[in-house]
Amino acid sequence: MTYIDAYNKINFQRELILRKIEFETEITDQKYVPSLQKLEQCTKPIHKAKGIPNEYYTKTECFDLERDILFNKGWFAVGFVKDLPQIGSVKPVNYFKNPLLLIRSSQDKKIRVFQNVCRHRGMTLIEEPTVLKGAIRCSYHSWCYKQTGEVVATPHIGGPGYNYHSDINKSELSLIEVRSHIWRDVIFVNPDGRAKPFEQVHKHLLDRWSSFNQSMYSDMSDSSFNLEVKTNWKLAVENYLESYHLPWIHPGLNSYSKLEDHENIVKYGHYSGQISNKYIPKYSTGKQFQNFKNLSPEWDSKGEYIVLFPNLILGVQKDHVFNLIIEPIACDQIKEHVEIYYSDPSMLSDEYQQTRLENTKLWRTVFEEDIFVVEGMQKGRYAEGFDGGRFSPVMDEPTHVFHDWYASKMLNKFKTT
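and the corresponding structure tokens:
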């Protein structure tokens, strides 16, 4: 082999190696794109539709897409007003690893939501719920902020002993406020700030439940609980939407509010759920909670159970209501935050404590009975042959409403990019 032949061979091998590296880099850099064709099947009429494909329950990439498309661009629930009981109360929360800070300001008593990071070097500011006596202080370099967000102290920013610098404009360094709204004691956020007003987006449900626009009262010691569940957030939603499973999963509940006593609530593009026409509360204490005021006769024996997409589960009855916020932690992990509310402060007295405890136990039992179901469905989403499943045109329409809403939102984003 001549010198030139050897040189050409080395160059050829070198070029092959470079092309291999370039190809592997392209593959690595490619963004994961889930199956859109399968997703489109969710939007077909219910008798032809299939459910959301497996990958949307099991892949981290899909979980991240949901953050960007469904949560950050819309309104979703992050906390409760009752968790900020006095001025200066703060509570840190995380959604999709986004650190947020809920606060009731001592300056104007207004509830706000901020990004829970210092504007200096991005250090998280508050780690645990507390009541602030003064400023929000960063533990890293002691930058301080009013509870309304404005920066008020930047120690040694101009050097030791100099708390100012001519090139630093403090008016540009307030905490970043996140657009928020409060409804029925729930704090909602719209992180990208571009969604239509909450009242406009959810007008249909606000109108439906306008008679419940009344004060609600919760005892934090016995009317709340949390559940940690190994499932995807969507499975918690769809399980709540239908009454089909009552006879087998909730035998106690089904003994007095039977499957045949239920009917579907369907509002495509907005919300769905179910009605129980046999809500007749009975407690071993012999006591009854006071009803909400000025309700129409239809509520004498009716309860409505709805999911406000994406992550708020709601229940209303004549004598109490509940809110359940689904906190997505990972594609296969959630935390459920449940709060129960009553119509009058007198219902929080010691006289009703045992009745409240009994009511809380009842709802906790119902939600705990669902855990093995939603965890089992999560395990089932790893079955390669499962195609999303089919819907009963009669019993599963509320679930189809959710799948149609989800798929339409996701597809619309992909089609516009």
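(Above: one complete record from the training split.) Confidence is low (pLDDT under 50) at residues 20-29.
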